[in-house]
Amino acid sequence: MNTTWAATATAVTFIWLGMVLAISFLETPLKFRAPGVTVPVGLGIGRLVFRALNSVEAVLAAVVLAAVLAGGAPAGVLGPAVAVLVLLAVQVGVVRRRLGRRSDRVLAGEELPRSRGHLAYVGLELAKVVLLVVLGVALLAA
């Protein structure tokens, strides 16, 4: 694989990984522990933060895919790259969309039980972290 493209894809992959770890596994759980943060306020903040994160992720995913394709990546790199892109698309297009509809109802004042959709989102975040690590390591070895 062309070294310039590999270096770009590697750097972007690890930046993406760091963003997911920092926001999904550090900021999000802590937000609800802050004094005065109610569920509706936390949901409102979360919607803004995850909309921004997912927008940045889409750009990073496009850069990784372009670098991998332009650099002539081997299958050991292409597979995880495509897998993480598909996972992101499902996460944003299906799970986050459902969570958005649910949070609309909560923000409108409806009392709802705890959401299992958030567990699906967290599960996909964990899978994305694993795929990003696999992709990053594969890029380092390419």
UniProtKB/TrEMBL annotation:
The chain crosses the membrane at residues 6-27, 48-71, 77-95, 119-141. It comes from the Bacteria. Keywords: Membrane, Transmembrane, Transmembrane helix. This is Transmembrane protein. It comes from Actinacidiphila bryophytorum.
